[in-house]
Amino acid sequence: MNGSEGLLRDYRAALLRHLSRREETSRAAGYELGRAALGAGVGLLEVVRAHHVVLAKVLRDEPAEDVDAVAGVASEFLLEVLASYDMVQRAFPRDGRASG
């Protein structure tokens, strides 16, 4: 993953795959995307921004009656992407105490 362009490209592909399949494997791809982003030093805010940009484009093409369902599935996908960030935060909290 290289830069914002790479993140947007990879995020779009993974989210669209998950929206079309809604399977454990596509959700796992979101988790792996998050791990790769974290490992590449991509910040949490940049990941959330990529999610917003991609989802906004997806929702423009959705029929109005499907928007809530698509947004819900996309939200679940985002949680998978952010799971690695959450694990790191829990392992290294700001107060210096590891959670257990």
Describe this structure in words.
- It is a single chain.
- By secondary structure, the protein is mostly helical.
- The chain has one domain: Methyltransferase, Methionine Synthase (B12-binding Domains), Chain A, domain 1 (Orthogonal Bundle), CATH 1.10.1240.
- The chain is built from 4 helices and no strands.
- The longest helix is centred in the C-terminal third of the chain and has 25 residues.
- It starts with a helix and ends in a 9-residue tail after the last helix.
- The model has no long low-confidence stretch (mean pLDDT 92).
Describe the secondary-structure layout.
Elements: H1 3-21, H2 24-39, H3 44-60, H4 67-91
CATH topology assignment: Methyltransferase, Methionine Synthase (B12-binding Domains), Chain A, domain 1
Assembly level: single chain
Rough shape? globular
**Total number of strands:** 0
The count of domains is 1
The share of residues in extended strands comes to under 5%
What is the highest CATH level, the class?
A: Mainly Alpha
Q: Unreliable segments (pLDDT under 50, ≥5 consecutive)?
A: none
Largest sheet: none
Termini separation: 31 Å
Along the chain, the helix and strand elements come as: HHHH
Mean pLDDT: 92
Q: Judging by the overall fold, what is the CATH architecture?
A: Orthogonal Bundle
The radius of gyration over CA amounts to 14 Å
- Structural class from helices and strands? mainly alpha
Secondary structure: helix percent: over 70%
Q: How many helical elements? A: 4
